Amino acid sequence: MTDLPVTEEQMTCIICPMGCSMEVRIEHDGLEKRVLSVRDNGCPRGEQYAFKEVRHPTRTLTTTVAVKNGEAPLVPVKTSAEIPKQFLFSAMEILRRIVVDAPVSCGQIIIKDLLGTSVAVTACADVEKK
Ligand code: SF4
Question: What is the domain range of residue 22?
Fold first, then answer.
């Protein structure tokens, strides 16, 4: 038995449309967090999600970037994999300043290595040149 502080947090699993509302007990050891237990998860994936969300939260980033001389002013883009959640704000700042020349094709790499994560940002649609 340790004297480390323990909190109980509500967490919504985002792995499937069921969106289970889970109760997660977390032990705090300075900046380190450990999941002690997960309740109300509808399946084992919820527990895996809670562990990952507490230790190393990641997200796929979807947004748009500006297009120059295109038939549309913006093209939707997304990361090719999840990136650490704490990088989302910096990534948005970078993508906000990017302007790509039309034509843009779906799957085109907009950024090869986003913030040193080895994750690319790719276009999700075609934009023809006007
Ligand atoms: S715990 Fe399982 S059933 Fe519930 S939302 Fe997550 S993946 Fe879906």
Answer: 6-56
